[in-house]
């Protein structure tokens, strides 16, 4: 089923804060017994049912992955394929209408591009787009260098949870040069709805209002960490802040374009002005 199926349900006469029922979640840890995500297949199915109830129709399975996995990591592309197939079979057996797309949450470090090109890390599905995270203390220059390296090799980079990096918390405007070079920013839904505190919510709202957020995704890990799908709640906050059209782009149209390697026409980011020295 196309991720855009059912899109026609949205139209005139709908309230501005309608719940969107065909959302795409590009960041999850739903694959079981893999990283700090779902601890069992049954937990993965709990997450899958919660995603569907939340209005999500497609999830990317993006376990943490490194080209050279550390000793405590089970990561391998072979294991992604294996767990992915098990989950897909279980979804079909349980008649849970959720489409899976394989991917990796790639750890930004030297050698990541070579590992991707060698097939040890995954882009989203068959696309040229990838999810890239950084250590929280990464310097802006180092993040830029890694992103541009992927872009020069013709990959489209989605930056995972920019709101968490220290250089962004010190000055969100540091994202502007990255965005101007085509990096896409994935805000975490829980941050926008206030589950990570009021400061984080204020910063993520400002990022959204200034064109520094391109997609919303859950980064859901499962019931054991109480990080469950909450994209509908974030979509509602985004509707209030920036209107239904932009909010729908964050949870559906832009993620769909990313999976399809389609062109994006995004508004340019705007500088956030400081208010009495506070963000
Ligand atoms: Fe993640």
Automatic annotation (TrEMBL):
Keywords: Hydrolase, Protein phosphatase. One of its GO terms (molecular function) is protein tyrosine phosphatase activity. Coiled coil: none annotated. It catalyses: O-phospho-L-tyrosyl-[protein] + H2O = L-tyrosyl-[protein] + phosphate. It holds the Pfam family CpsB_CapC. Signal peptide: none annotated. Its EC number is 3.1.3.48. It is an enzyme of class 3 (hydrolase). InterPro entries: Caps_polysacc_synth_CpsB/CapC (IPR016667), Pol/histidinol_Pase-like (IPR016195). The keyword Nucleus does not apply. Belongs to the metallo-dependent hydrolases superfamily. CpsB/CapC family. This is protein-tyrosine-phosphatase. The lineage of its organism: Bacteria, Bacillati, Chloroflexota, Chloroflexia, Chloroflexales.
């Amino acid at each position: 089923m196309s991720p855009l199926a059912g899109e026609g349900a949205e139209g005139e006469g709908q309230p501005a804060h309608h719940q969107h029922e065909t959302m795409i979640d590009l960041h999850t840890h739903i694959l079981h017994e893999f990283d700090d995500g779902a601890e069992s297949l049954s937990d993965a199915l709990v997450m899958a049912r919660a995603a569907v109830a939340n209005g999500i129709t497609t999830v990317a399975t993006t376990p943490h992955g490194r080209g050279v996995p550390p000793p405590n990591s089970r990561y391998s592309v072979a294991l992604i394929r294996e767990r992915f197939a098990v989950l897909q079979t279980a979804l079909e057996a349980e008649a849970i209408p959720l489409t899976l797309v394989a991917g990796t949450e790639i750890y930004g470090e030297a050698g990541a591009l070579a590992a991707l090109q060698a097939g040890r890390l995954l882009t989203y599905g068959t696309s040229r787009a990838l999810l890239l995270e950084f250590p929280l203390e990464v310097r802006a220059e180092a993040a830029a260098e890694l992103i541009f390296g992927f872009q020069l090799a013709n990959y489209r980079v989605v930056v995972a949870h920019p709101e968490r990096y220290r250089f962004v918390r010190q000055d969100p405007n540091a994202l502007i040069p990255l965005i101007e070079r085509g990096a896409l920013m994935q805000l975490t839904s829980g941050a926008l709805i206030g589950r990570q505190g009021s400061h984080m919510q204020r910063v993520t709202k400002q990022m959204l209002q200034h064109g520094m957020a391109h997609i919303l995704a859950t980064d859901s890990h499962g019931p054991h960490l109480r990080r469950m799908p909450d994209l509908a709640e974030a979509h509602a906050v985004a509707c209030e802040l920036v209107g239904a059209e932009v909010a729908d782009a964050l949870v559906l149209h832009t993620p769909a374009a990313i999976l399809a390697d389609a062109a994006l026409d995004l508004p340019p980011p705007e500088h956030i002005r400081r208010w009495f020295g506070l963000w």
